[in-house]
Amino acid sequence: MTEINYVFETHGLNIFYGNFLAVADVNINIPRHKITAIIGPSGCGKSTLLRAFNRMNELVPDTHIHGEVLFEGQNLYEKSVDPVEVRYRIGMVFQKPNPFPKSIYENVAWAARIHGHKGNMDELVESSLRQAALWDEVKDILHSSGLAISGGQQQRLCIARAIAVKPEVILMDEPASALDPIATLKIEELMQELKQKYTIVIVTHNMQQAARVSDHTAMMMLNGGATRSGTVIEFDETNKIFTRPTDKRTEDYVTGRFG
Amino acid sequence: MTAKENRKKRIESSMRPGDTVLYSPLSNLSARNRLGRTWQLVFLSSTIIGILALTALLLNILDRSFGYVVLHAKVDPATFAVDGLPLEEQTKDQLVSLLETELSSGAFNKLNNEKSFEERSRAEVYALVIERLVKYEVEETWPLFESITNSGEIKAYAAQEYPGDKLTFISWLTADFISRPQSSEAVTAGIRTAILGSLWTILITILFAFPMGVGAAIYLEEYAADNWMNRVIRTNINNLAGVPSIIYGILGLAIFVRVLEKLTSGAVFGLVDPTTANGRTILSAGLTLGLLVLPVIIINAQEAIRAVPQSLRKASYGLGATRWQTVWSHVLPNALPGILTGTILAISRAIGETAPLVVVGASTAISMDPSSPFSKFTALPIQIYQWTARPQEEWRHLAAAAIVVLLALLLSLNAAAIFLRNRFARKY
């Protein structure tokens, strides 16, 4: 059997908040060791779709899902699947940096410890911080607060924290939207490094960012029906989405002629 | 000329060449500022009224805690003089032999067993002689401010009305007052039993209400779904916090004293104290006060848990933590200072509660120290309430002194809790 080239496959994915259909009929395949960007206007369900990939939507009361999300060929929403296991294998970085109010060291070490990490914790902390390109900046202040560093550093700390668990995928929900351009650039460079080892899915508002960092892009938009649900209107290589989009709405959006 | 024109003129006269002035198009600005200042005054005055009320309370207590008293000796101390040597100048041995001859041998041996006379200092023996042989009684008392402002008149009055009796300025609050058990004589009455009773009771209350309250709050905030039944439960916890304390007393009487008598009297543990073979024990009182403060602790803990940012929970779940790991490692440590603050407030309320203890059956006059949760007990507020209800003036002075002790106890418990809170407060 050949290796599956797609980490995620969604089949007829519909996400509901109560009776409201927020995301309708998504069928996309996320390729392995690539960066996939989800772009689109506000309120079209980008983050909702992203959170469906590691079952974080379940923290919102009254959400449910129709359809399938296959992760390595296994449906994440089958009864036998434990969401804790899902989130352990599929890490997440949030829009606002949210380090724990603990030391930098503890921020990285905590999750590994609760998952029963047996090896040398100091080494794990160092290698995670190195992968997140933060080690040189914080190696002397490992035991001071994770909240005492700058916003960009905090976000990289959150990435290091996610890496320390050794996930297979990292989901990023507008990871640079709260950061200045320099910190944003650092995060983007970091993503290029990380994609050697991890599959990355990123939601972004910033089309230049999607064009710069991603290999594939999913264009989402409200489907225009009475339900006001969002859906993926086009999914292709980033290059193609930004230069020769097939959908007129995509073209309008990426060229700034939207609305 | 109106005030507005005046102001305009004043501004213009102070201008230098080249200055421009911005005349505000907001013609109502000064009215808005005036309204703001008016409300500021209202807020300030409510603060001042609060401070004045508190000061009046403290002054009133102080007023009654010190002052002149006329003491009448049942037996004139002069009758105990040996060879013309008055009582004050006699040696310790002389005083001990005096006690031995004047007291019954049983009473003397009992004193000796409590603490042998060799170990007692001269001052202690002298105090015993005064207490057991001279037996002062309070004839009349004056509060502190009257004693200071009117001392000449008081002295003249006392010399005329009570010839031969001793007029002294005393503090009703003394170390002896705190360390002596209850007594039927105002001069020898103390509050040791009441302090110990209060401490024991509050200990039971904390041990019961803190874990229960925090546990319930965690369940309601982190686990319970937002459905019809849980909303009813939440609403009713809020209602329970407003139920009058006497109702809790009746509940405690029905459940802990009557139904669970075997447990609260210690019978199930084979610890029956023959003098307290019923449920009117410290355990019943502590559990009743625990029920009383439980809703307050739950509500405060819920608030504290709700105040923990959702982003921390998301971060934790996003790393593959279970609900329990999230609660234990992130929610609780961050909510703990808030939870402790709420608990401090609740416990402060419990320690001053009187009504439920009356109903649950606090004793009013016991001189035996409580020794276990199954002991009969009295508590400081009960003692104070009981003393203020007596007709003789001297008991009210004692009540004031006991109030000072209760306030001090309350403040030191609060200080301990604040110390704990600061220790647990997040370091980052």
List the helices and strands and how they pair.
The complex is a heterodimer of chains A (about 260) and B (about 425).
Chain A: E1 6-17, E2 20-26, E3 29-31, E4 35-39, H1 46-52, E5 63-71, E6 74-75, H2 83-89, E7 90-93, H3 104-114, H4 121-131, H5 135-138, H6 151-164, E8 169-173, H7 181-194, E9 199-203, H8 207-213, E10 216-222, E11 230-237, H9 238-243, H10 248-254
Parallel strand pairs in A: 4-9, 4-10, 7-8, 8-9
Antiparallel strand pairs in A: 1-2, 1-3, 1-5, 5-6, 10-11
Chain B: H1 3-13, H2 29-65, E1 66-73, H3 92-102, H4 105-114, H5 122-134, E2 136-141, H6 144-149, H7 151-161, E3 166-171, H8 175-179, H9 192-223, H10 228-240, H11 245-259, H12 261-264, H13 282-306, H14 310-318, H15 323-351, H16 355-360, H17 380-388, H18 393-424
Helix pairs in contact in B: 2-18, 3-5, 9-13, 9-15, 9-17, 11-13, 13-15, 14-15, 15-18, 17-18
What fold name stands as the CATH topology of the largest domain in chain B?
MetI-like fold
Count of separate DSSP helical elements of chain A: 10
- Tell me how many strands of chain B there are: 3
Q: Structural class of the secondary structure composition of chain A?
A: alpha/beta
CATH architecture of chain A: 3-Layer(aba) Sandwich
Distance between the terminal alpha carbons of chain A, to the nearest Å? Answer: 47 Å
- CATH fold-level name of chain A: Rossmann fold
In DSSP terms (H or I, runs of 4 or more residues), the helix count of chain B works out at 18
Percentage of residues in strands of chain B: under 5%
**Could you tell me how far the N terminus lies from the C terminus of chain B, measured between alpha carbons in angstroms?**
61 Å
**Total number of beta strands of chain A:** 11
Low-confidence sequence ranges of chain A = none
The Rg value of chain B, from CA coordinates, equals: 31 Å
CATH superfamily of the largest domain in chain B: MetI-like
Please give the largest β-sheet of chain A: 6 strands, mixed
